[in-house]
Amino acid sequence: MTLKDWGYRLFPGLKWLHGYTGQDAVADMIAGVTVGLTVLPQGLAYATLAGLEPQYGLYSAFVGGIVYALLGSCRQVTIGPTALLALMTSRHTGFGLGSGPAYAILLCLISGVVEMGMAVLKLGALVDLISLPVTVGFTSATAVIIGTSQLKGLLGLRGGSGSDFINTMRSVLGNLSQVRRGDVTLGLVSITVLLLLRKLKDVKFAGRVRSLRAQQLISGTIWVIATGRNALVVLVTSVLAYSTCKQMDTCPYILTGKVKSGLPNITLPKFETTILDKNGTELTQNFEQMVSELGPSMLILPIIAVLGNVAISKAFGGAGLSATRELVALSMSNICGAFCSSMPVTGSFSRSAVNHASGVRTPLGGCYTSVLVLLALGLLAPYFQYIPKAALSAVIISAVIFMIEFEVIRPLWRCSRRELLPGAITFVMSLAVGVEIGLLLGVGADVAFLVYRAARPVLSVSKLQTINGINYILIRPKHSSLYFPAIEWVRSGISKALTTHGTAPVVLDCAHVHDFDFTAARGMGSLHKELAKANVPLFLMSAHKDIGVILKESTSIDFPTIDCPDDLECILEQTPDYELHLQIAAPLVESRISRGTSDAVDACSPSELSRLNGKST
């Protein structure tokens, strides 16, 4: 392998430089600047949501773009702060003094390390355990929590936003008498304008103009205004606040306050910090205590970050992308970001959509976004102090409104009502207890359903006849595998079939069964012996060779196998009890044993096979 190949393997982004043209550079610059105009107000707002000073949102917005340009594989993905991760970070930033940034930066570092571990161990498939209903319930609950956490900023109430839905609503409702009219008016107008501008790009003004050049100019102007609506609203409200506050003795708006200008220091994250306890006493927290405080967030937050980033990559880049490569890029974005005072980051779907619509050609577009953020930190930071908090709250609320996915409920109700339960559990418990607990309970409910289906497979039971009139009972499992929780259920189904349809050879259709575990195989051996005592032959039909090997090695029994029901005659003719199976033809009887039916559970008592045995003797 040449040095060039090694370079491409370590830094896949270098491949984009091969054949990189001036047109590519212009397209990437336009897309990068457009995304930068989106991430600037969002970064400031998400830092506030996370309980940090606004500059930390900008610190988090530039490192990911550079790292992903080198390591990422999807040109549309933009890495940076998101509302969801900011909300989860805010649970650990309210201890006062300088502990907020210390906890956020340490969480960023640990998230990157966990993501790298997932990449090394090929654990990207863990996100597959989170089903769509659980994801919808989780994102909808977090959208509600994020929206309510911004009510204080929107209404002009003092105090932190917080991440607890119930306590936040209690605090807001208890302080409605302190609502500031100026902030409420500015916030509601900003939300209205943002939502109208979002719809502006769907309005076809250009069709009313005949000139092609005029159509292109109008369409381009509308697209720029709609795409950069967040920056436009923040700019206009900042100018309004600056002019108003200069002319009046008391400012009618609560402003963001001083934002530290300049680049962040490149340094190790702090592994100890100082907090204030409930009595206002300063307490020093060492690394072990900080890790204890972060708790489940150290695992839940990286999984959520990976889930979002892989979903965005697949949405824009197709199914051919490597989930492991995306994990490496995301983990290095967080690890490198932690040395630049970044809070946890991941891919942003809204900004990635803007990047895609802007015509980005390579991941190098993220570098242009990073340059714009760095210029803003160096030149514009002193002016960020005039941004009204109500405007930032409006930016967040207008973004998270569309994270609530009501449209999924109707098709789920029509197609699979069972899947509504894990989604509902996730949504309700996320609001009541916390997003981490809600997500875990939702995934737990989904896994419980999967285990239940494995333990209670659907069995199709039919009493049929061969061409020459030999009655037999056909048992057809609907699952591709039979594991230890299901073997007693299958034995109960066979026992009930014998009780219902009388003594007859039992044929277990294994055409769709591809796997047995050891316990299930031993259970089949016990079933074979019990049926043999009752003079009931058991046959395996269309069994795969691997199934026969597993049963033979586990039980030392040669299970008779057939390829089709008519083969029963050839085998039974060789038995001394052949005439016993030539019974009077009975009409076809079919029954179904499905999971959740009490009849199937209670049908087989331990004495049924013994009664059959008694009759045969």
TrEMBL record:
Gene symbol of the encoding locus: LOC4811915
Chief localisation class: membrane
Species this chain originates from: Drosophila pseudoobscura pseudoobscura (Fruit fly)
Transmembrane segments: 29-49, 56-73, 93-114, 126-147, 179-197, 217-242, 294-312, 365-384, 390-408, 420-452
SUPFAM superfamilies, per database record: SpoIIaa-like (SSF52091)
Protein's name according to its UniProt entry: Sodium-independent sulfate anion transporter isoform X2
CDD domains: STAS_SulP_like_sulfate_transporter
GO annotation, biological process: transmembrane transport
UniProt-annotated location(s): Membrane
SLC26A/SulP transporter domain ranges (all copies): 27-421
InterPro entries in UniProt: SLC26A/SulP_dom, SLC26A/SulP_fam, STAS_dom, STAS_dom_sf
Pfam families: STAS, Sulfate_transp
UniProt KW keywords: Membrane, Transmembrane, Transmembrane helix
A single GO cellular-component term on record: membrane
